[in-house]
Write a structure and sequence with these properties.
By secondary structure, this protein is of the alpha+beta class. 34% of the residues lie in helices and 10% in strands. It has eight helices and seven strands, in the order E-E-E-H-H-E-E-E-E-H-H-H-H-H-H. It has helices at 63-66, 71-86, 179-190, 208-235, 242-264, 292-311, 319-328, 339-349; strands spanning 13-17, 23-27, 32-35, 91-96, 102-108, 119-125, 136-139. The chain has a five-stranded mixed beta sheet with strand order 3-4-5-6-7. The longest helix has 28 residues, at 208-235. The N and C termini lie far apart (67 Å). Residues 71-231 form the UBC core domain. One of its GO terms (molecular function) is ubiquitin conjugating enzyme activity. Residues 1-20 are annotated as: Disordered.
């Protein structure tokens, strides 16, 4: 028996002009939509250990989720309506017609943070007694810890989820709290400008300069790991978001690569690059200290980003030539390797390596 799902706003299309001047209709990736395929959802077949009733494993098909008269069903339908009407531009959600206890959300990293232009996916599940207990939230981390509140195993620590200590008003309230509040909290309180201070105790003792130095180093690592996350997402995008991931990184590729270059050269503090080359919350005219570790790590990752974006269909144009010269002026040592050597690998990846007069490549191989 099919569930009586609420009627949603009609799907829309927008017109796009092709290279031949023809007008074609393309589907808009709406911020909220109902889909059917939940096959790769983290909570699809997981036992809800938090269920204190001692009942057997449930896949979300019990009375609380299929009975339209149950409190959980009614509350979830209310959540759907709230999400459909009030999601901000930077958060997208997909719910499932056959598994109303599950949903997936992606948050676009905000400008002015080391998460800018990245995509951060969360799998969410409603417990059978929802809203008495908060939803379960899992961060799709790819084994990387990009925030004190987001663990490499996917655990999300947040007071609103009752997974982190907090005042009563900060915790889940069954009569007032919503999934929308959870998502906005993740974006504003977790994926913030200075995530280093999310860790309890950081910045408490005197010595602001020392704390700020540690915070900047932490943000450098966060940006590096966020760039690695981009590559993982391009290789294995979450189901129902394949087109969104492709389109997002195709559009943002040049900005991301420009930011990498600006950060490596110390033109802008990590997290504050803007598309016009300026920065916020810092003096763009002064040189910013950048650790040698960050320069080395980003120097090694940069060719992979370029290659990944190129395969994804990004129009980089003369971007490589514009970035190559400024970076090659400095030979940045890191574990015996240099950024100059990295760009040699980059040219090999993209098929741009030139040959010398003897017909051999001008860059030595790793085995030489």
């Amino acid at each position: 028996m099919a569930l009586a799902l609420p009627s949603l706003e009609p799907r829309q299309q927008q017109q796009q002009t092709t290279a031949r001047g023809e007008i074609q209709e393309i589907d808009i990736f709406h911020r909220f939509d109902v889909v059917s395929d939940s096959s790769d959802h983290h909570y699809l077949d997981i036992i809800k250990k938090e269920n204190n009733s001692g009942s057997k494993k449930t896949k979300g098909e019990g009375d609380s989720f299929s009975n339209i008269s149950s409190g959980a069903y009614k509350k979830i339908m209310q959540e759907w309506k709230i999400l459909e009407k009030h999601l901000p531009d930077s958060i997208y959600v997909r719910v499932y017609e056959n598994r109303i206890d599950l949903l997936r959300a992606v948050i676009i990293g905000a400008a002015g943070t080391p998460y800018h232009d990245g995509l951060y996916f969360f799998d969410i599940a409603f417990p059978p007694d929802f809203p008495a207990r908060p939803p379960l939230v899992y961060y799709r981390s790819f084994g990387l810890r990009i925030n004190p509140n987001l663990y490499a195993n996917g655990r999300v620590c947040l007071s609103l989820l009752n997974t982190w200590p907090g005042k009563k008003r900060e915790k889940w309230n069954s009569s007032e709290s919503t999934v929308l509040q959870v998502l906005v909290s993740l974006q504003a309180l977790v994926l913030n400008e200075k995530p280093y201070y999310n860790e309890p105790g950081n910045g408490v003792l005197p010595g602001r300069a020392i704390w700020e130095k540690k915070s900047n180093a932490y943000s450098e690592n966060v940006f590096f790991l966020s760039c690695k996350t981009m590559l993982f997402l391009l290789r294995t995008p979450p189901t129902n978001f394949e087109g969104f991931v492709t389109g997002h990184f195709r559009e943002k590729a040049s900005v991301i690569l420009s930011a990498c270059n600006a950060y490596i050269k110390g033109e802008v503090r990590v997290g504050f690059y803007r598309n016009d080359g300026s920065c916020s919350s810092c003096q763009s005219s002064s040189h910013v200290h950048v650790s040698e570790k960050f320069k080395g790590l980003m120097g090694q990752l940069y060719p992979q980003l370029v290659s990944g974006f190129k395969r994804n269909g990004a129009s980089l144009g003369d971007f490589l030539e514009q970035l190559k010269q400024p970076v090659e002026k400095k030979t940045l040592s890191f574990k015996g390797k240099t950024v100059r050597m990295v760009f040699g690998k980059l040219k090999k990846v993209l098929g741009l390596k030139k040959k010398d007069n003897s017909g051999k490549s001008g860059v030595k191989s790793n085995g030489s």
